[in-house]
Give the backbone structure.
Amino acid sequence: MEPTKVQSEGGLNVTLTIRLLMHGKEVGSIIGKKGETVKKMRKESSARINISEGNCPERIVTITGPTDAIFKAFAMIAYKFEEDIINSMSNSQATSKPPVTLRLVVPASQCGSLIGKGGSKIKEMRESTGAQVQVAGDMLPNSTERAVTISGAPEAIIQCVKQICVVMLESPPKGATIPYRPKPATTPIIFSGGQVRADTLAAPATANLSLLLQHQPLPTYTIQGQYAIPHPDLTKLHQLAMQHTPFTSLGQTTPAFPGLDASSQASTHELTIPNDLIGCIIGRQGTKINEIRQMSGAQIKIANAMEGSTDRQITITGTPANISLAQYLINARFRDVAAMWTDPSTMTTS
């Protein structure tokens, strides 16, 4: 983002360029039937909205214009995603509405300013806007940029984006920035009989796994470097990921999401997960399950493996809102892992 004017009349008066990272389903929602939705957004906000080309699980949405136009475009996107969430709830068992989530792509050299000394700035943004903000610890593949995840009610997201813009304008990026460019998802698959197949899956990956499943009657392996490693059971991943309509993964947050009723009485819900997929939920040294606990505010216990059983029991305890969000995040995790296995270059980031 580059300012072209100084602040005036107590507010921002600059031209900005902001980049968003979206999954294929979200991009489809923004484009709309025959492009009608994005045309309306461009006209009503006066912002330039461009969507990266390519047969990729992820796309970059670039929004450029004066600050007023930028924030109008952001508002329209946030409210569209909330509408999608509400519509999806009519087709699922979820009882509490998950927050809207957007991911900004920000030069890593500016992320320190967004976090602030000892996390002071990011804490201030969370408290003053009601939105939840997470700055990714790792840079996006082959770039010097990081994802900044914002989640909450649309109004909170808009206020948070405004504050982020102010911080970024006050602290321009240092040095050259290598922008993140999503790659097409091409995975070489080796079947146990020795056949090799390369499948390119369009986003969202989970919606297209059926293309790959049709050709998987045998055990499979994925090439990683010089090694062929066992490929996960994509059928199971597909089924688990599609239990809820997938939206973008949520960033690390505290349990108090706007719009979720945290005062409801605690209850318990149980999930059954195949043994060979439990690692997707636990993550390396428990990092993923701890994130899900923090984000949802729910207590999550994973039972020990029982001799002779191919499944593991997960017990989720908390308010209905906590449980619903924990289920959503677990399904989102399966979706992300399924998408990751379509692109070996992302394996080390899971």
Q: What stands out?
A: The chain has a mean pLDDT of 74.
